[in-house]
Amino acid sequence: MTEPREAASLRAIEEVAARAAAAGRLEPPGGEAVLRSVVELAATLFDAEAVSIALHDPATDRLVIRVAAGPQGKGAVGISFAAATGIAGYVFTTGQPLAVADVAADPRFDRSTAERTGYVPRSILAVPVLLDGGATVGVLEVLDRRGDASLGLRDLDLASMFARQAAVVVRETRVERDATELLRQALMRLAADPAADEDALGDAVAEAALALDGEAGDRLWTLADAVARARRAAPDQVGLVIEILDALARRSSRPAPRSFRR
């Protein structure tokens, strides 16, 4: 016979799974393969020695190079460094793009990290990877255009376009990461209150989901929580929810009305 505490743990996992499934349907998944295609295309268009994307790991406060492309990019994948270190760290902490034509003359350049990748560049173009709310989650870097052409300020707009594509991928892949955090919070709440009943457990998971929503900077988890809870409603109530969501979707897809000035 299953112990009450084990049953409560199973319910916590089921509650989280319902919200994660709803969030996954509301926002399609992405992955490192897409990020890799972003840097590969960027390396081709810039004709660069290397293009990389480093993403911030909040647990360690470090930037981790997740993907890289170009003739000199292979050795960079997996290397991490303090979030405020080097040119990438400067761009990450300030949220400002940067083009450095001569890195050897720039005091922000972190040569030791570059040496760990197996390639020390002459020039670096770095742009922040920004989510919709303005939070910086990583940095895209372009190292050394091959040949005589140099990287300059006019290339920042193109690099920023690739960074925006990377931001889309990061945003779309956060469901799995957030679901893990949601489960952790739910089980912590369960450990603190072993006598919690099913309704209390559901409320705890909902509260954790709302907290994740605030941290993520959008309403995905709020909506996922509402959809997950609606599964318990009567069939006619579920139909009403679907009608309301459909009406909102149609409304949001209409062009915004033009404003006229006198």
Main attributes?
262 residues; alpha+beta; Beta-Lactamase; 2 domains; 53% helix; disordered C terminus
Largest sheet: 6 strands, antiparallel
| Corresponding CATH superfamily of the largest domain | GAF domain
CATH fold naming of the largest domain: Beta-Lactamase
Give, in order, the helices and strands. HHEEEHEHEEHHHHH
Share of helix among residues? 40-55%
Rg, Cα atoms, Å: 23 Å
**Oligomeric organization of the protein chains:** single chain
Reading off the top of the CATH hierarchy, the class of the largest domain is best stated as: Alpha Beta
Structural class: alpha+beta
> Structurally, how many domains make up the residues?
2
Q: How many beta-strand runs?
A: 6
Strand arrangement, major sheet: 3-2-1-6-5-4
Please explain how this structure is put together:
The protein is of the alpha+beta class. The chain has 9 helices and 6 strands. It folds into 2 domains: 4-28 and 174-253, no CATH class; 32-172, GAF domain (Beta-Lactamase, 2-Layer Sandwich), CATH 3.30.450.40. A 6-stranded antiparallel sheet has the order 3-2-1-6-5-4, sandwiched between helices. Mean pLDDT is 77; it is low at 258-262.
Protein topology:
Blueprint: H1 4-26, H2 32-46, E1 48-57, E2 62-69, E3 80-82, H3 86-94, E4 98-100, H4 111-117, E5 124-130, E6 136-145, H5 156-172, H6 174-192, H7 198-216, H8 220-230, H9 235-253
Antiparallel strand pairs: 1-2, 1-6, 2-3, 4-5, 5-6
